[in-house]
Amino acid sequence: IIMTEKRNNRGIISLIVMGVVSFLIAIGLVGFFYFLQTGDNLYKQGNIFGVSPMKDNATTSVKVTGFLSDPIANVDGGTQLYLIEFSRTDNEDYGYTSLEIKEGDKLIDELKAKQDDLLDNPVYVLAKVRKSGADGAVKNYSIEFKDTIRENKAISQLAETEYYVSAHEANTDRLYASVGAGIAVLFGIVFFCSAYATRKREDKAYAELYVAYPELNYSMNTVLENATYVDNQLGIILYKNHLISTFKNFQVYDLTKADRIYHYIYTQKSYGMTVSRTSQLIILTSDTSYRRKKTTLLIKNVGEDTDDLLQPFFYAVSQEFPEVLLGYENKKRPF
């Protein structure tokens, strides 16, 4: 039987795919919230405040054709309400409402700078429609707004008093999208780095074998026929001084450096039921110039019989490496 170099290409490709997906999610979030969902685009699509059916929390475009530079109210949370004139599809079809803006927002400066020219050059503001009395909306908005504009008949007759628009909440959605995109990018970087690290660890493992055993001549062809112990079911090979694990990732360990080795089963449960078992060979060493104190090698878990199936392996280790302690030490936890 000839053994060839085993590469975890499936795992690496999966990590790369997840990295690509993470970056695509980040690009999608940024693209949608910052380039597709804009005031200009929604207006062109017919999603216009005063034209589209009013619905609380709906995102819309507000065609601002008039702006009162002083806020008509300060809202808890650091936002302000400004009286605006909004137009629908035609500048002659207009009305009045409040626009909620975060104090210090650049939109305020933009509207003030264009205040005298808004009728001819309106600003299309991306905003959320909010209904008076709705959860999270300005408290008692309708009553307060009616009181504010009561004396001005020209405004009160054309005012939308049940709904107002919030640029602040639309910007908050964008902020959440930015955070989500940032998290997706971080996940993408982690996935790409994991793929790179996995390949590097495999390369390092093969390099260790080829350096230790020049007779292999950079080939695994003769490993199985010259191995001391082979368990294809669990993915374990003893080749001279090295323990080789071939389950999922290719891992090697020089047992002349080991102090102790034992089997550990990690069990994951859900609602009291076992959903998965993972088997690991834990190797402890005091030679930290070779490896860290505790190294984990994955092996295949085949159920409750896994530990029994490992006994021939432990016997082979005891014969070849009698100085290596076997099993977990209960009285004194090494690490």
Overview of this protein structure:
By secondary structure, the chain is an alpha+beta fold. It has eight helices and 14 strands. It has helices spanning 9-36, 39-44, 106-113, 141-149, 153-156, 167-212, 306-309, 311-320; strands at residues 59-67, 73-75, 79-87, 94-102, 123-131, 163-166, 229-231, 236-239, 242-245, 251-254, 260-270, 273-284, 294-299, 325-326. A five-stranded mixed β-barrel has the order 1-3-4-6-5. A hairpin with a 2-residue loop joins β8 (236-239) and β9 (242-245). α1 packs antiparallel against α6. The longest helix has 46 residues, at 167-212. It is elongated. The two termini are 39 Å apart.
Q: What's the SSE blueprint?
A:
Elements: H1 9-36, H2 39-44, E1 59-67, E2 73-75, E3 79-87, E4 94-102, H3 106-113, E5 123-131, H4 141-149, H5 153-156, E6 163-166, H6 167-212, E7 229-231, E8 236-239, E9 242-245, E10 251-254, E11 260-270, E12 273-284, E13 294-299, H7 306-309, H8 311-320, E14 325-326
Parallel strand pairs: 4-6, 11-14
Antiparallel strand pairs: 1-3, 1-5, 2-3, 3-4, 5-6, 7-8, 8-9, 9-10, 11-12, 12-13
Helix pairs in contact: 1-6
